[in-house]
Amino acid sequence: MTNKFELYKCNICGNVIEVLISGDGHPVCCGEEMEKLEVKNDTLNSPDLTEKHSPKITRDDENNIVVTVEKHPMEEKHYIQFVQIISDDNDEVITKFFHPKEEVRMNTNIENNDIKARSYCNIHGVYMN
Ligand SMILES: [Fe+2]
């Protein structure tokens, strides 16, 4: 059984998939069940971690939502690959992909005020604000 917006990774080929419509089965890739990526929150572990993954949600002067990940490497081998803003009712999702050396920052004028944000690090996995 899957749930909407869950992420699964193939530990053989590296495919990462997102569930859009849930079903009874478990995703399979390369002949094996894919690993469900559990959502983590690094602010709970240590407030002074030098490397942080959890996205921060703020608003700019025009009241747009701004999501950033400020304290994380953006190197070829270790970087934030994407950030998503998801409404609490799970009816809206916005995804932005990032590349090494880029600043992790996304803006949206999404009207829904009840949102969460998550980031995906290619090494450490999924983090929610
Ligand atoms: Fe990381």
Instruction: Provide the β-strand percentage band.
Output: 35-45%
**Overall geometric form:** globular
| Main sheet makeup | 4 strands, antiparallel
Q: Which H/E pattern describes the elements?
A: EEEEEEEEEEEE
Write down the CATH class of the largest domain: Mainly Beta
Instruction: Give the averaged pLDDT, no decimals.
Output: 92
The percent range for helix content is: under 10%
Named CATH architecture of the largest domain? Sandwich
How many helices does DSSP assign?
A: 0
Structural class: mainly beta
Strand order of the largest sheet: 9-8-11-12
Strand segment count: 12
Q: Could you please say which CATH topology of the largest domain applies here?
A: Immunoglobulin-like
Count of the separate structural domains: 2
Q: Determine the CATH superfamily of the largest domain.
A: SOR catalytic domain
Q: Which blocks of ≥5 consecutive residues have pLDDT under 50?
A: none
Give the terminus-to-terminus CA distance.
25 Å
**What small molecules does the structure contain?**
fe (ii) ion
* Integer-rounded radius of gyration: 15 Å
Can you characterise this structure?
This protein is an all-beta fold and 129 residues long. It folds into two domains: 1-37, Rubrerythrin, domain 2 (Single Sheet); 38-128, SOR catalytic domain (Immunoglobulin-like). Helix content is 0%, strand content 37%. It has no helices and twelve strands. The chain has strands at residues 7-9, 16-18, 28-29, 32-33, 35-36, 56-59, 65-68, 80-87, 93-97, 105-108, 115-121, 125-128. A four-stranded antiparallel sheet has the order 9-8-11-12, with no helix packed on it. Strands 2-1-5 form a three-stranded antiparallel sheet, with no helix packed on it. A hairpin with a 5-residue loop joins strand 8 and strand 9. The protein is globular and about 50 Å long. 18% of the residues are buried. The structure holds fe (ii) ion. Residues 53, 72, 78, 121, 123-124 line the site of fe (ii) ion (FE2). The site of fe (ii) ion (FE2) has 6 residues, from loops.
